[in-house]
DNA sequence: AATGAATGAGCATTCATTCAT
DNA sequence: TATGAATGAATGCTCATTCAT
């Protein structure tokens, strides 16, 4: 913690530390001090790299988004070349995927979804986060739109958000069959998927 | 602020004040002090009536629920005696209602929905709020179940939550036609409404 | 510094401490911490009694005013019953008095005038101090008006302020003969003193 | 803000920036950072050119003096060759001039006088500024001495300072008739003006 | 039952300064 | 010669909580 001059990517380490802190203590527990301690960095260093906590929050949410989009992208295969207007098993794939996320890390800290939702929902009161939240929303919608039309994709995202929150907020058990069922209803009458670029 | 000894419904006034404070400054701005000032009550009085802020938060969310359930109940008429398995215009009614809530109070403070969602979503990190959030969710679901079946009702609530959050978090405009459309899809194939008690 | 609950007139002690701190380190050195240390009182106590530093500054300047007005009043005897339109030796009395103030306390800390002027002049940038500065100005003017007319009194105050500042700001030596001379010029053609109340 | 290597009059630009900063935020708001930002110059550059803030303050006050002396000189014409011992309208000229300064710039920032007085009065606590304050005082006195004798000039300066401060500190309205009156009294019995050099 | 006073911990932020480049 | 990065100290202020009344 002393004399450690010259430390490139300290900025990145601070973002990582911020994510861990939020995971452990929530956004309310994210302070310059807690981040500094978590990153093992002098206090002044946090304000040097991120003048305000909002800046740090934005960076954290953005990094989370990248990781999340990658995860979703890996889980949701794009539509095959000869798919009809609607992917046959998308509803079930999504329901299964959602179940995996919500089950989460059984170990100590909060699960990934909870952390992610906390940051995402923080945009409600923090305008600075709004653009990042919008990016996240659009990114996931775009991924799903590879298997259905954009309007349907957006509705799927909303429904999955709503169902996840019901589980997270009320402690209700997750029922994959039920979720697949209602997702399927939204997929009913969906248009053709967005063709991949260059197609 | 002084000498106001006998004051039987001070407790209620504190809850009202707490709601106003959260509306104006967010949950992060809810402190014993801010509530005391808002309610024009000595500081010690707040800790006396609500030992912790969580207690106050629970009371506030519960009060909000009551008002909200009443509003929803008034907006969503129960199914008539000879309705078929599904109310013909429920989707549009809900979309319109949602639009009204999201448009909100154009005056100073935050709109009602934003306030309500902030408290509701706070349950993510505050276990004490979880039971109240569950109550809220069940109450609204039950109201909608008077026009469709419970599983569908729960999905409608989730979808409306998700769509509302998209609007609130990303600043996207609200499109009632789109919302009615996707709500209608969820209503597709819904079962019969829950018969009124005693029916 | 510990366990000293119940300490009435702690508020007064804080004001005294603030005056000593400003005397020693200037307004720039007046911080909640420095006052707390000087008064041997916990830090939180300073913000409890004076929510902002401006409040403390106002209280300090006001207290200083009282003492100063008393000192001036003692030094400047009111006009005798049969005085003509102008007190014969007022100019010299004032010049002598001014010399005594500017000579000040040869010991360590800043002299009283310097301290007083620093707080008084701070009103230039701190609107909160303005009313107190105005009070001070009027009080001294009223005292002098007992020996001459109010317009002349106000000018005497201005001239004495200006001459004092020349000494304090530029380090020029104080020349009582010169000061008496120019004060006398202002007194030339002055009207009758303000009659004492009830006279 | 980057790569601006060759920049010969950066020093001057920093002084200008410092004056603007003091005008906007007061001496207390003058920091290396605020100057750097105002001058659009890297932070390190300010400490490089002015090791301490006092140095910068001295430079700023000195520059202000030059401009002010020029303004006064332009406003106060020297005595004509056949003037009697006393300039007939000097009192009124000065009163009018003072009124113009105190009215100041009606636009956003602080008026020029306020800024100038703040820096001038700062000498009270900052010995480094004392010589510059003395220069200012002497310069203005010398200018006025071209229309009256030096002792009287010095008193005029003191009286004008005192009257200006009354207006600035207490918010009292400026009354040019009154000011001319009392200035005239000081001019009463003044000696002959200082003859121009070489006269 | 109720409350004014008190206090220790903590927070976001700002800053002068140092130093390696 | 300049400067971006870094840092330790400090500041004003807020707060939950305690306690004596």
Describe the structure.
The structure is a homotetramer of 199-residue chains. Chain A is an all-alpha fold and 199 residues long. Chain A has a domain at 78-187: Tetracycline Repressor, domain 2. Chain A is 63% helix and 0% strand. Chain A has helices spanning 10-25, 32-39, 43-49, 53-75, 90-103, 112-121, 130-144, 150-170, 176-187. The longest helix of chain A is centred in the first third of the chain and has 23 residues, at 53-75. The first copy, chain A, is elongated. The termini of chain A are far apart. Chains in contact: A-B, C-D. At the A-B interface, helix 6, helix 7, helix 8 and helix 9 of A face helix 6, helix 7, helix 8 and helix 9 of B. Chain A binds a DNA duplex (21 and 21 nucleotides) through helix 3.
Main interface: chain pair and counts: A-B, 40 and 40 residues
Tell me the CATH superfamily of the domain at 78-187 in chain A: Tetracycline Repressor, domain 2
- Shape category of chain A: elongated
The helical percent of chain A reads 55-70%
Relative strand content of chain A: under 5%
Based on CA atoms alone, the radius of gyration of chain A comes out at 19 Å
State the distance separating the first and last CA atoms of chain A. 54 Å
Helix segment tally of chain A: 9
What is the multimeric organization of the chains shown?
A: homotetramer
Largest beta sheet of chain A, briefly? Answer: none
Chain-averaged pLDDT of chain A: 86
How many strand segments of chain A?
0
CATH fold topology of the domain at 78-187 in chain A? Tetracycline Repressor, domain 2
The unreliable regions of chain A are: 83-87
What is the CATH C level class of the domain at 78-187 in chain A, in words?
Mainly Alpha
Structural class of chain A: mainly alpha
CATH A-level architecture of the domain at 78-187 in chain A: Orthogonal Bundle
**SSE order of chain A:** HHHHHHHHH
């Amino acid at each position: 913690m002393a004399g450690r001059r010259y430390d490139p990517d300290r900025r990145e380490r601070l973002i990582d530390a911020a994510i861990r802190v939020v995971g452990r203590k929530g956004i309310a527990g994210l302070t310059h001090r807690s981040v500094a301690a978590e990153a093992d960095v002098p206090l002044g260093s946090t304000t040097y790299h991120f003048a305000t906590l909002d800046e740090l929050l934005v960076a954290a949410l953005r990094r989370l988004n990248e990781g999340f989009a990658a995860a979703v992208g890996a889980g949701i295969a794009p539509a095959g070349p000869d798919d009809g207007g609607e992917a046959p098993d998308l509803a079930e794939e999504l329901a299964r995927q959602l179940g995996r996320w919500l089950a989460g890390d059984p170990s100590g800290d909060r699960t990934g979804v909870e952390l992610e939702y906390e940051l995402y929902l923080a945009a409600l009161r923090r305008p600075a986060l709004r653009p990042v939240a919008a990016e996240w929303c659009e990114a996931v919608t775009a991924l799903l739109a590879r298997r259905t039309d954009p309007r349907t994709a957006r509705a799927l995202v909303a429904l999955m958000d709503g169902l996840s929150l019901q589980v997270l907020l009320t402690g209700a058990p997750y029922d994959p069959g039920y979720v697949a069922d209602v997702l399927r209803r939204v997929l009913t009458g969906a248009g053709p998927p967005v063709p991949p670029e260059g197609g």
